[in-house]
Design a protein that fits this description.
Layout (H helix, E strand, L loop, with lengths): L10 E5 L2 H4 L20 E2 L9 E2 L2 H8 L8 H4 L3 H15 L3 E5 L2 H4 L10 H16 L3 E7 L5 H7 L6 H17 L5 E5 L9 H5 L11 H26 L4 E7 L3 E3 L4 H23 L4 H9 L10 H7 L4 E5 L4 E3 L7 E4 L2 E4 L15 H15 L3 E5 L17 H19 L4 E7 L19 E3 L11 E3 L1 H11 L6
Parallel strand pairs: 1-4, 1-14, 2-3, 4-5, 5-6, 6-7, 7-9, 8-10, 9-13, 13-14
Antiparallel strand pairs: 11-12, 15-16
Helix pairs in contact: 4-6, 8-10, 10-13, 14-15
Bound molecules: 6-O-phosphono-beta-D-galactopyranose.
GO molecular function, one term: beta-glucosidase activity
Keywords: Glycosidase, Hydrolase
Protein name: 6-phospho-beta-glucosidase
Length: 486
């Protein structure tokens, strides 16, 4: 067996999410989604941060009744809904073996509670997956990537209500039945751990609907419902699509102690254990004892139905997927200088450079993450998000030189390769935002991740024309040589 380099069938490709690319927010019967509420100024945490406006019932009512997309960049996306053929052709030109996309739940069930799916919504994704198959691009499909029908959020406070599990199962079953011949790889919830950081986007939880002092308990309750839903749809997927593979999806927040002071090491260990907890439940099929103790200590009581623990135990995932953008540093001391990545916050690591948005760049941290994850779970791994948000400059001749992006990927790929050579079972890699898209955290268009430039600014001006950046040609060569020519 060849133990050098990436596996022969390594799945190289890219990733995106429906609400950051599709646009067409109100066509073909699509219902409003929580993502359609996002403005530059809104943010989606329980509390206000960095001058953003926290989501509230009042804010949502106003946004839901605003029929325009002017202030809502995610409603515009990059018009992938109408341009997907052109975009897929560009991905195929780069040699993509795989593309990670998500399905907008509110295209299929506009309010979440219909008994019959919306045919036009189903048809759109059928066309998309058929075209991908024609081009030899394997789809990896996320069922829930930061969106749900807004009606489920406003009616039930989102995933806080147990009945939403059934709604999600109905939606997922409709997808499995319709796409069973087209899609083999499925992910249930994108960055399931993010419910703690932005509960509205992840789980439709509206802060002013949470009784004071109960916010944390409510978040854990909603999370439990997502765990149960994930296990139930994993079972359905295996039953409806023989040979299918289902993965969990974790934000890998690899955290280092700031010093070797045992107090720093202990807080770091606990932080890492909490980050693992989300995948632990989905891979091992049970809540870790230390998390249950922590919940007890905090007087947090999760209501479980009889049978929930059994469902979790019986329907675990086949593989582990994760996003990796940065590492974090933790200290037991107060008042340390911070480094941020949207809603993620750590102590500043003096050894690492950062992107224009302050995300600390750490390729070795990716290798560490791969080794940790494989050692813990012993399941096949796939990196389904990694990349660098940056400002790009279009030259007079239309070219876009992005050596910073090439360098970012190059350094990360070297580390991936080393991890694989050391024995990690990594079967694929999808870079985040292979085409420029609307940022999840800031709703900016100018925070660009793509190998393909999209002519659109933060206000929505532009022709939407696609242009190849230097990194486009570089990534094509990487794929052609299966990661040998970096
Ligand atoms: C992840 C999300 C993506 C994505 C990415 C980059 O957390 O799953 O949807 O957008 O982060 O974040 P941002 O767009 O805020 O730069």
């Amino acid at each position: 067996m060849d133990k050098q380099g990436f596996p022969k069938d390594f799945l190289w490709g890219g990733a995106m999410a429906a609400n950051q690319v599709e646009g067409a927010w109100n066509v073909d019967g699509k219902g409003l989604s929580v993502a359609d509420m996002a403005t530059f100024k809104s943010n989606l945490k329980l509390e206000d941060y960095e001058g953003h406006v926290a989501i509230s019932s009042e804010f949502i009512e106003k946004a839901a009744n605003d029929p325009s997309d002017k202030d809502y960049p995610k409603r515009r996306g990059i018009d992938f809904y109408h341009r997907y053929q052109e975009d897929l052709a560009l991905f195929a030109e780069m040699g993509f073996k795989v593309l990670r996309v998500s399905i907008a739940w509110s295209r299929i069930f506009p309010t979440g509670e219909e008994t019959e799916p919306n045919e036009k919504g189903l048809q759109f994704y059928e066309n998309l997956f058929t075209e991908m198959n024609r081009l030899g691009i394997e789809p990896i499909v996320t069922l829930s990537h930061y969106e749900m029908p807004l009606a489920l959020s406003t009616k039930y406070n989102g995933w806080v209500e147990r009945s939403v599990i059934d709604d999600f199962v109905r939606f997922s079953q409709a997808c499995f039945h319709r796409y069973k011949d087209l899609v083999k790889y499925w992910l249930t919830f994108n960055e399931i751990d993010s419910i703690h950081r932005h509960p509205f986007t992840t789980a439709g939880i509206i802060p002013d609907r949470c009784p004071e002092g109960k916010e944390e308990e409510i978040v854990y309750q909603a999370l439990h419902h997502q765990f149960v839903a994930s296990a139930r749809v994993t079972a359905d997927c295996h039953r409806i699509i023989p040979g299918s593979q289902v993965g969990c999806m974790l934000t890998k927040l690899t955290t280092y102690p700031n010093t070797c002071d045992p107090k720093d090491v202990e807080v770091t260990l606990k932080k890492n254990l909490h980050n693992y907890f989300f995948a632990d439940v989905q891979v091992f099929g049970e809540y870790p004892t230390m998390i249950e103790r922590m919940l007890e200590r905090k007087n947090i009581h999760i209501k479980m139905d009889p049978g929930d623990r059994e469902i979790l135990r019986e329907h675990t995932v086949d593989f582990v997927s994760f996003s990796y953008y940065m590492s974090l540093t933790e200290s037991a001391k107060e008042g340390m200088e911070k480094a941020a990545g949207n809603t993620i916050m750590g102590v500043k690591n003096p050894y690492l450079p950062a992107t224009d948005w302050g995300w600390q760049i750490d390729p070795v941290g990716l290798k560490i993450s791969l080794i940790e994850l494989y050692d813990r779970y012993k399941k096949p791994l796939i990196i389904v998000e990694n990349g660098m948000g940056a400002y790009d400059q279009v030259e007079n001749d239309g070219s876009i030189h992005d050596p910073y992006r090439i360098n970012y990927f190059k350094e990360h790929f070297k580390q991936m390769k080393e991890a694989v050579e050391e024995g990690v079972d990594l079967f694929g890699y999808t870079s985040w935002g292979s085409i420029d898209l609307v940022s999840a955290g800031t709703s900016q268009m100018s925070k660009r991740y793509g190998f393909i430039y999209v002519d659109q600014d933060d206000e929505g001006n532009g022709t939407l024309e696609r242009k190849k950046k230097d990194s486009f040609y570089w990534y094509k060569k990487v794929i052609e040589t299966n990661g040998e020519d970096l």
